[in-house]
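Data deposition worksheet. Section B asks for the primary sequence of the deposited chain exactly as it was used as input, without tags or linkers unless they were present during the calculation. Section C holds the resulting structure in token form. Section D is free text for depositor observations; keep each observation to a single sentence. Incomplete worksheets are returned to the depositor.
Section A, Depositor: J.P.
Section B:
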Amino acid sequence: MAPHLSRRFLLQSAALAAAAPVLAHAGSGRAAAATLPAPAAWTLRPFELKDVKLGQGVFAAKRQLMLDHGRGYDVNRLLQVFRANAGLSTGGAVAPGGWEGLDGEANGNLRGHYTGHFLTMLAQAYGSTGEQTYADKVRAMTGALTEVRAALRSAPAVLGVSGRFGRGAENVRGSHQYVDLPAGVLGGASAITLSAWVKPTHDADWTRVFDFGNDTTRYMYLAARNATGVPRFAITTSGPGGEQGLNGTAALPLNQWSHLAVTLTGSTGTLYVNGAAVARSTALTLTPAALGTLANNWLGRSNFAGDPVFAGVYDEFNAWSRALSSAEITALQSVSAANSSSGRGNLASYAFDETTGGSFADGSGRGLTATLRRTWGAPSHPGFLAAYPETQFIALESMTSGDYTRVWAPYYTAHKILRGLLDAYLHVDDARALDLASGLCDWMYSRLSKLPDATLQRMWGIFSSGEFGGIVEAICDLHALTGKAEHLALARLFDLDKLIDACAANTDTLDGLHANQHIPIFTGLLRLYDATGEQRYLTAARNFWGMVVPVRMYGIGGTSSAEFWRARGVVAGTISDTTAETCCAYNLLKLSRMLFLHEQDPKYVDYYERALYNQVLGSKQDRADAEKPLVTYFIGLTPGHVRDYTPKQGTTCCEGTGMESATKYQDSVYFKTANGSALYVNLYSPTTLNWAEKGVTVTQATDYPREQGTTITVGGGSAAFELRLRVPSWATAGFRVTVNGAAVSGTPAAGSYFSVSRTWRAGDVVRVSVPFRLRVEKALDDPSLQTLFYGPVNLVARNSATSYLPFGLYRNAALSGDLLPTLTPVSAKPLHYTLDGSEFAPFSEGTEDPTHAYFRRTEPRVTFGNTDSGVTNPSRPNGTTLLDEIWAGAPFVSRTALVSQVRSVVNTWVSAGLLSSADGSRVVDTAQNASYVP
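Section C:
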């Protein structure tokens, strides 16, 4: 069993939370504004979304598409699965479907996750724009979820609707509710009539109108649909093989009233549908009397646990201790039983005209009050909130291997809901959201703290079923707000020690692991480090990052192949149509951001820029859609791959994280030091920062990356601070900074920050020049397979060919080493170029063009300045060519310097017997006579 909270732990947690704000928990109204307290371990502080406004540019254009989607989408559709689970009216809303519905992949076992993503998206949209529509939608969702939790805390209550004759009781699909009749309801009758009015709303097979039995051996049922879709009555004392049955001839229509009746007398049984006898048998040997007293007497529920619960409306259910005549059955079609010649059933009679409570009065005179129940009972704790029963959480505790058709990552889904609630509180100040989040974690703690550590370790190591996403980060955030020691203790219950210890020891065990199941674990570990100071958490996160970047990373910043990691250093060998799951990039961005907040290694922001400007932007299609967010799941990197922006069945995890990404593009443009002495400009993006503590604004005017630099203007008052401008690792030459037109002295170094310290005043203008160069990045396991970058921009060839395209790039390389002159710019299309008949375009453009992110590098002839020497480009056994070694010396200050490099390399190759003297002379002569771009 997990250890109880020690007095020392409680005192430490209370001390850590001493600065937590006092929070209002009112069910309505506006709570006091709250921000997430910055941990002392963070040497940098991020700004809130509301403090950084996004200007026009590539990010704003992408964001607008998502803002429009969020503004127009009916959130009642998202709430449908939650309301259904609680037995509440869904108001006719249709669930989004796909993974967020009962008919999606794996029986809809992940439903609820997408609603959490959407809640975060709306909250961030409000935080970014201040548009009231988003806040209103957030409040509507938190209000509805509050009602859902209240309903789950209570016994089921009747959902009264219009019936066949008066009122009816609706059983919402997904509610897992049924009507429990008292024992002895059949009265040991040897003859019987069972009659019901039903309006089915779903066509699932084997849903029961009634089922009286003890188990799967002794029972009597009437199914609205059997395996062939028609009604079936059956009775048995020896299980399915001994069933004596009657089958209907046609399916019951959906959303229409149907009357079903079964009569048994002697050896004759008759099944009636809407007054017509559709099946009769005179060879029945069993009657209800043969079944004896039964334990389970249910309307809407089967004795077979795998059968679905009836979804639809009941009006009347009657049981008589005799077989009604066909004329009497016919009479029941036009009047209620109470008004018919038969009268109400003398064994049981339920009119379902109740409008409140969870009990149904019996009109038979026997006083057999029926009760509305859930198949799974009730939540184990009042904080429980989900779109499905607690059963998945319970089942996980005994699982030894993954099976997502039974249990699909319930704590992962809980994380999405928790994160959405926290964001609703932090951005929209809805205190109900915090109350829901706190209760949800109280419930989780009540479950998990009772389990032995060995059980927890087994659970978290199970593929898919045991996945818990970024729940530790979210719980730690909640703890920072509430200060409850149990919340911090809960976060530590998710420690997967085998993984943490391996990474802390810098032992790479990632081969064969599911990528996105594990990446967000490490963001959570960083937050645990913040809360506890335990060094192994920080060390594990830092080392893990290096096990992925760059050794399991594609050029666009993505990772994973078919969702899994392969061996370290294998990149080309993993390229497929299912590379680079979009969620992985989302979570690696979060991890890189948080690592940088702890320790300012520029490599983290270099990665952030790479993944943000390429995979994340490119994962969003550049068109509007009211129904779908249009975000990729996988981004295949095979030749000629066409991106799929409506993946799988829809409402996937990647569409969820894609919605989040598109509403927080600006969250890492600026950071400040903890003491406010410096401002980090991490990304060059058209934004305006309102730095309230300093009383200044900082505005970037730029079309980056279409523009190679940015102009920063200081507004407001005056303030002294150090401006730290990022020098990207690829900016190897020409980075330059001016302040008010005057050059700033210093030597910028690629992969660092360039600092300018002064007292800034309104109107000060900083111009940052960041020259781009065309360069290649080689696959670690196949240097001939390369991807093309121009500054931060990954350029992909648009071509329908399905094999790797061959390209050479040295033919017109500039003296600077820039390969761009080999390409031809496309008029009026920034960052578009052509080469050998193929157009290259930014990966970030969300089109449906077939693309080649990787190509086969071929430099068959030694060529300088578009002048062919006629000499074959020789290579060493390791694949390095003569031209590779020549251009490795770039940049060259002049043609003379280049020719000197050519001569030196040629002499080396001639001496090694890799190049003849005659060919060497031709190479040198060509280099001397060619013309070059500077």
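Section D:
Residues 132-153 form the longest helix (22 residues).
The chain has a mean pLDDT of 95.
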